[in-house]
Structure formats: structure tokens, C-alpha cells
Amino acid sequence: MFILRESRLEFVGMTWGYRTPSEAAAKRKPWINARVEKALTGRYFRHMFREGRVIVPAGGWYEWTIENGKKQPWYITRHTDQPIFMAGLSNYKPWDPRTVPQTVETGFVIVTEDCEGGMVDIHGRRPVVLEPGDAMR
What we know:
alpha+beta, hypothetical protein yedk fold, six-stranded mixed beta sheet, 10 strands
């Protein structure tokens, strides 16, 4: 994923998923998505929406349907085969050796929104995909 640090775009490899320390201790599965309509105001992701917005580059993403009792994958891409840039949220903080080691798991979630048009036949939600120029801004 990409973050903006000191006016420079920086790539940071990170685990997809986020969970609180109590969720990790309980061995709960991490959250992988955040609904855009709740990310700003909901208490779970609000801190990341303010300080942890990231861009997740990808070639596409998978959605799944059930056909004849079997899971059918659908790979969603741009029509132009160009990369996509998904909006994401992360609790990533640059490591500072002068601080106490971080005890919270670092990860990211993909921001999702309601589908519009033809995608609704496959799934009711989709990642928030940004145009390249918007992703750079």
C-alpha cells in the first residue's frame, strides 16, 4: 500500500486485516473491509479515517457468487487493464526506535461502498476505487 509521509509517496508492505488487541487475544478473525458510511463516524475505524488513509494498488479484486452449489469467482478489473487504486484505512505508524515497541497489530482494511449498476448482480458492495489522479491527491 502507499502512504504519504513528509510530502512523499512511500510504499509499505502490510497485512490485509485489522483487529484490536482484545480481538487478537480472543483469536477473532480480522476485519478486512470498512463501510465508507460508517468509517468516518463509527468508533471502530474513526481514528484510522482521520490519520490512516492509504491507497491499495491492485490489478483487480475477486467477488464470489454461488452457482449450482459451488462458489464461482469473478475477477473485477478496469476495462483498460490499468491498475486500480482502492481506498483503504490503516493503523500503521512509522516505527521510531526511541519509542516503546508497538503492541497493536498493524494492518489495513479496504473501504467499501454500495454497488451501482451491473455489479449489484454479483455483490451488493464493492471497494471504493479511485481514479489515478484522485489517488495521487
